[in-house]
Design brief:
Length: 629
């Protein structure tokens, strides 16, 4: 795991200042404390920060091909590199190192862009071909590894693993994109189709971009996509056997490391499954780490303890206290863009704990998206069944009218909180799922904006790209489309961003075996009844893992990382909540109704309502603006 950065001139072979590339790399030094390197040639400069995982002494970067005709900087891991190496050697390739970086170079030399589907793993890389004077920018299938790009006024393209690498270049404009603010307030993160700064882009997951000399940067090309269009045949036993094979292969392939390796263990189905399969494949105790809370209602460490005891792991745990709000500023600095998933705080803490004992940690991320583990997906499945019985001409007035007058009762028992469900049933499946996925509804956002912001935003609404993505998905059902949206939109924007930034902040490599693309492709072909059965999501995984895990771990309600931000915003962070719209870069924009935000903050602090999620979003937005200003 590493950090990469560079400068590519697309308007002539202008010289590149190596010190400028070095400063970009220094901004992301936390991603690679074990080594650094910069290489320049007319028109190109590539920089690298290394976290040594494989071939510790033998694979420095930037790396030149043995033939001297290609150079690469690479962030990630190729898990099948040994098989590819043997195949390339049979074709006449020669190797000077024992790592995976050189395998990418030779794969490019022999197969060109057709090498990409052969690469199994997580990766973002820039490869400069000295023969053609072209630069290939690539991002892995799911977007596990990030890659930011921007075109400067002189025609140069700059790139980096994090936005802070681009911010280190003096020519980058720092103009906030109001459409990104609309996106952020809708979702709680800035999705991959946009950046908080105008002119900065994120290379989409599963895409590449080939930059040529004396030509403007072309649009990214998609080299991989997930399809839900086909269905596998077989009974639960047969499909479960195939599933277990894929899971075992995914886990064991990610256990290859020349440095200490362990796993995150929350005590949930996914991380427990990964630990169980690691223990099965390992001859030594698996190293595991978990985080708990000093608020008993939020603490799950008892389940993690049980799994650690069952599989005889070497287990460490740490408690996040209620005063961990002191990390808020540090958290904002990790993400550069505003990021409001409050579980980033305990995720950072578990990464911090893991780094004290290992350099690589396996996580359980990806299974909820791939196998329908989120409650919103099971709701969507049932709502689509309801939509199939009632045509839209009846649903819209009936459910829309009820939803409009139904009170928003977040405080009430769950069966009485029907407003969102009613509004969802009144809409199309895609519109309903966008509402379920959103952190704030379009109606609420509308009350926050000033007239000036509404003019800047125009007709754009954050839900539009998601709805279009779902409507064009290679899918057969509403559940398929919901999972497609989670894999393509929510996961890279939120989950993978969170894990990448928090793990890299402490120089820890996180690996996601349940995002092995062959495993996910298998999950996408499963019949709906093997994914959702009644109110149970991830049904086949849970049935398959019964031979390893206890029932109360498999079938207890999903919690995930929860933080006590509502209490913080009524206590130690109350003054920051009150001052949100009164001062700082957020207030300076003139984009928000300060009286409205002040009223929401006071209602929350007084305990009259729970606006913690929205206030947290606005707080993180302000901190991001203050840093970017």
């Amino acid at each position: 795991m590493c950090g990469i950065a560079g400068i590519i001139h697309t308007e002539g072979l202008k010289p590149v200042d190596p010190d400028r590339v070095r400063r970009m790399c220094d901004a992301i030094a936390h991603r690679g404390p074990d080594g650094e390197g910069v290489w320049t040639a007319p028109g190109v400069g590539l920089g690298h920060r290394r976290l040594s995982i494989i071939d510790l002494a033998g694979s420095p970067q930037p790396m030149m091909a043995a033939e001297g005709d290609a150079m690469i900087v690479f962030n990630g891991e190729i898990y099948n590199f040994k098989d590819l190496r043997a195949e390339l050697q049979a074709l006449g390739a020669t190797f000077r190192t024992d790592g995976d970086t050189e395998v990418i170079l030779q794969a490019w030399r022999h197969w060109g862009v057709d090498c990409l589907p052969r690469l199994h793993g997580m990766f973002a890389f820039a490869l400069y071909d000295l023969r053609q004077r072209t630069t290939l920018l690539v991002r892995d299938r799911f977007g596990v590894k990030p890659l930011f790009t921007a075109r400067l006024s002189d025609g140069a393209v700059i790139f980096g693993s994090e936005l802070k690498a681009l911010l280190a270049h003096p020519s980058l404009r720092r103009e906030i994109d109001p459409l990104a603010v609309e996106d952020y307030l809708a979702w709680g993160y800035v999705p991959d189709h946009r950046s908080i700064l105008k002119g900065v882009e994120k290379l989409p997951a599963g895409h590449y971009q080939l930059l040529r000399p004396d030509a403007p940067p072309p649009a990214p090309v998609q080299w991989w996509d997930i399809s839900f269009a086909d269905r596998a045949k077989g009974n639960a036993d047969d499909l479960g056997a195939h599933l277990l094979h894929h899971m075992r292969d995914a886990v064991t392939s990610r256990m290859l490391s020349d440095v200490p390796l362990g796993a995150f263990l929350s005590g949930g189905v996914d991380s427990s499954s990964v630990v169980a399969l690691m223990a099965e494949a390992s001859t030594t105790p698996v190293k595991t780490c978990s985080i708990g809370f000093d608020v008993s209602a939020l603490d799950e460490t008892a389940y993690a303890d049980r799994i650690a005891e069952q599989f005889h792991t070497q287990h460490w745990k740490r408690t996040v206290s209620a005063d961990d709000f002191t990390l808020v500023d540090k958290l904002a600095g990790m993400f550069d863009e505003p990021f409001a998933d409050a579980s980033a705080l305990p995720t950072f803490r578990v990464c911090e704990l893991a780094r004290e004992h290992v350099t690589v940690a396996l996580s359980g991320d990806g299974a909820d998206e791939a196998f329908a583990g989120y409650r919103r997906q099971t709701f969507q499945h049932r709502e689509e069944q309801a939509r199939s019985f009632l045509p839209a001409v009846l649903r819209k007035p009936l459910f829309g009218g009820l939803g409009a007058i139904w009170p928003k009762a977040d405080w009430a028992p769950r069966p009485l909180r029907a407003k969102t469900t009613l509004l969802s049933l009144a809409a199309s499946g895609e519109e309903g799922y966008a509402r379920a996925l959103a952190a704030t509804s379009p109606e609420l956002r509308e009350t926050l904006y000033s007239p000036d912001f509404k003019r800047l935003r125009g007709e754009y609404r954050a839900e539009q790209p998601l709805i279009e993505l779902m409507r064009n998905a290679p899918a057969r059902s509403g559940l398929d489309r919901a999972q497609y949206a989670d894999l393509k939109f929510y996961m890279p924007g939120d989950i993978l961003t969170k894990v990448d930034r928090t793990s890299m902040a402490v120089s820890l490599e996180a690996r996601e075996p349940l995002l092995d693309h062959r495993l996910v492709e298998f999950g996408a072909r499963l019949p709906e009844s093997m994914r959702v059965r009644g109110t149970t999501g991830k049904w086949l995984i849970k049935q398959t893992m019964r031979r390893y895990l206890p029932e109360d771990v498999l079938f207890r309600p999903k919690m995930g990382f929860v933080t006590p931000i509502a209490q913080w915003l009524r206590g130690p962070l109350a003054s920051q909540a009150r001052g949100l719209a009164a001062s700082g870069a957020l207030a300076a924009t003139g984009w928000f109704d300060s009286a409205r935000i002040e009223g929401l903050a006071e209602d929350h602090i007084a305990g009259r309502a729970d606006h913690s999620r929205l206030i947290w979003q606005l707080l993180m937005l302000r901190k991001s603006f203050d840093r970017l200003g």
